[in-house]
UniProtKB/TrEMBL annotation:
Sequence segments annotated as region (Disordered): 112-131
Protein name: Unannotated protein
TM region positions: 29-50
Compositional bias segments (type: Low complexity): 122-131
Keyword annotations of the record: Membrane, Transmembrane, Transmembrane helix
């Protein structure tokens, strides 16, 4: 044995060959996707902010939910808005069943609000009527008649309530607003629209068309076309304004056309419900092509859906037939709804109230004597009807047809984005 050899304390050490590390291949796709997504979101946010700012700037006091809904409709999201509103009316804004109204059917206190005793005394000064014709676009403004008229219409019979035990004054016509040549030109009645949701009134305004002249004011956004007044009633006419209320749907949702001041903004459709305002201030509601035709005497034609009342008969097929009369509600949803109707004697009625089904709206119109009626705009804020008393100096004092109408009682006197129907006295006013 060779003692010079080193002695190992264990098995020989094995040195493994160094592993060769493989370089990872770089994949840029995830990074590109993140950058593209971020760019799209940033662009969308910028676009949304820019377009929303424009909508907000023209809001005119509208509540936040109305501004958002308007912005969505302006940007092709109407179907989504309709679905959201359906959910809102189905699960959030739900009407009570049973009960009695908290609003009085007696209009007296509302009609007299804000008047001083001296305002109720006859004035020796001449009426503001004689200087009420502005110089701008005279063909759009009916010429007032300064000679007091004698002929007038009488309000229809009381509206029969569907509730077995009506409230005091329910369904009875009560004179409101400033008098024309000493005669009431407007009456209001409140009545339940059905016998289930008995906590709510439908408010109905009746207008004597022999004592008034109608005027159509296009909004500065809707329904498009000529806009001579920037959506406002000329201030020269404020001393003789008696009533005003909302127009129809946005033109793109109306399923009809629109004509104003010699311009066919959108072709009129035969068979559609139409409200025609003539250059002399007369007004007619009917079916285009059957009751109404184009003539040189027409100032405006506003169409909206089909007639909801035709020849004195409701055209709503069932109590849940809502979506035909406004795609923003479905099935059994009850909403703010409005309509304009015409009686056999030519007088006009307007209904604008909350928690109405299409069936309840039509039945109220029929109960008030409407022979033909056209649906107007709907939902909170867009449904709005007002009438006026005047102080001695001609200042109009606005009254809401329904006390729960969203703010802006005088909104149709000032520049407004949507169209409105206005009714002016055709003879001197009196207390």
């Amino acid at each position: 044995m060779n003692e010079d050899l080193p002695v190992s304390d264990g098995p020989p050490e094995v040195i493994a060959p160094a592993r060769r590390r493989h370089a990872r291949q770089y994949n840029p796709l995830p990074r590109i996707l993140v950058l593209v997504t971020a760019s799209v979101l940033l662009t969308a946010a910028f676009w949304a902010g820019f377009t929303f700012q424009s909508t907000y700037a023209n809001a005119g006091g509208e509540p936040a939910e109305v501004i958002v809904a308007t912005w969505m409709r302006d940007n092709n999201m109407g179907p989504l808005v309709a679905k959201l509103e359906d959910v809102y009316y189905t699960y959030v804004s739900t009407p009570d069943v049973g009960g009695t109204p908290t609003v009085s059917a007696d209009i007296t206190a509302e009609d007299n609000a804000g008047l001083d005793p001296e305002d109720l005394q006859p004035s020796d000064s001449p009426s503001a009527m004689s200087s009420a014709v502005p110089a701008v676009v005279p063909s759009a403004i009916p010429s007032p008649i300064v000679t007091p008229v004698v002929e007038h219409l009488n309000p229809p019979p009381p509206i029969t309530s569907p509730v077995p035990n009506p409230e005091p004054q329910e369904g009875l016509w009560q004179p409101v607003g400033s008098r024309v040549a000493g005669l009431p030109a407007m009456y209001v009645a409140r009545v339940r629209a059905d016998n289930v949701h008995t906590s709510y009134y439908a408010s109905v305004l009746w207008i004597d068309t022999s004592l008034t002249k109608a005027m159509f004011i296009p909004g500065f956004e809707e329904p498009g076309g000529p806009n001579p007044f920037n959506g406002a009633l000329p201030k020269e006419l404020w001393p003789i304004v008696l009533a005003n209320f909302n127009g129809a749907f946005r033109l793109e949702d109306s399923m009809g056309g629109y004509y104003y001041g010699g311009e066919m903004v959108k072709p009129l459709v035969d068979g559609k419900a139409s409200t025609v305002v003539y250059k002399d201030g007369s007004i007619k509601v009917g079916k285009w092509g059957r009751d109404l035709q184009m003539s040189d005497e027409i100032q405006a034609v506003r169409q909206n859906l089909n007639l909801i009342v035709d020849k004195g008969v409701s055209k709503v097929s069932s109590a849940t037939d809502n979506v035909i009369w406004g795609a923003t509600t479905d099935k059994e949803s009850l909403a703010w709804r409005a309509a304009i109707g015409q009686l056999a004697d030519g007088s006009i009625i307007y209904v604008g109230s909350p928690f109405l089904s299409a069936d309840g709206l039509a039945n109220t119109l029929v109960g008030a004597g409407a022979q033909e009626a056209m649906v107007l705009d709907m939902n909170t804020w867009w449904t709005a009807g007002f009438y006026f008393r005047h102080k001695k100096d001609g200042t109009p004092l606005c009254r809401k047809l329904d006390p729960s109408i969203a703010e802006g009682c005088d909104r149709f006197l000032y520049p407004y984005k949507r169209d409105s129907f206005q009714f002016l006295a055709n003879a001197p006013l009196s207390p």
